[in-house]
Write a structure and sequence with these properties.
This protein is mainly α. The protein folds into two domains: 59 residues, no CATH class; 45 residues, no CATH class. Helices cover 52% and strands 0% of the residues. It contains eight helices and no strands. Helix 3 runs antiparallel to helix 4, helix 6 runs antiparallel to helix 7 and helix 7 packs antiparallel against helix 8. The protein is elongated and about 65 Å long. 22% of the residues are buried. InterPro entries: TPR_COPA_B (IPR056176).
Length: 147
C-alpha cells in the first residue's frame, strides 16, 4: 500500500502509515515535510541523513537571512546552530560590540583572534524589494481527499 501511494504521487499520505524511521525520513523528504524529516533524522542520528536534510532545507529556502545582509539575523542563525566563534567574529567585524562581548563571555578562553591592520568587511547584497521571512514551506494535506 505504501509503495502504491508513493508511486501514485502521494508520499505525504504514505507517511501516515509508516513507522520505520528511515522510510519515514525518505517519504518526508519526498513530500517536503521538513518537520517530520527533522524528527526522523534526530532518531536515526547518522551523518548521511543530516546531510540530506540540510540539502532539502536549503532547497526549501530556510537559509534566506544569510543572504539578505541582515547581520543580527546572521549572528542569531550562527548562534542557534552552535557556531559561536563565527558568530563572535561576525558581530566584531560589524561593530556589534555588545553582542560580541556576550559571545566572548560564552566562549571563555576559546575566543578567536581577528587579524590586526586592515579592517575586514563583508560584501553586503542589495536590499530585497520584499522581505517576508522564510520562504513558505510546503503544506502537507491530511488524508487522501485532496479535492
Amino acid at each position: 500500500m505504501i509503495a502504491y501511494l508513493q508511486q501514485k504521487g502521494f508520499p505525504e499520505v504514505a507517511l501516515h502509515f509508516v513507522k520505520d524511521e528511515r522510510t519515514r525520513f525518505n517519504l518526508a523528504l519526498e513530500s517536503g515535510n521538513i518537520q517530520v524529516a527533522v524528527a526522523s533524522a534526530t532518531t536515526i542520528d547518522e551523518k548521511d541523513y543530516w546531510y540530506r536534510l540540510g540539502v532539502e532545507a536549503l532547497r526549501q529556502g530556510n537559509a534566506v537571512p544569510l543572504y539578505l545582509g541582515n547581520v543580527k539575523e546572521r549572528i542569531k542563525i550562527l548562534e542557534n546552530v552552535g557556531h559561536l566563534p563565527l558568530a563572535y567574529i561576525t558581530a566584531s567585524v560589524h561593530g556589534l560590540h555588545d553582542v560580541a562581548e556576550r559571545l566572548s563571555a560564552e566562549l571563555g578562553e576559546n575566543i578567536p583572534t581577528l587579524p590586526h591592520g586592515k579592517v575586514p568587511t563583508l560584501l553586503m547584497p542589495p536590499n530585497p524589494i520584499m522581505c517576508g521571512g522564510d520562504w513558505p514551506l510546503l503544506r502537507v494535506m491530511r488524508g487522501a481527499g485532496h479535492g
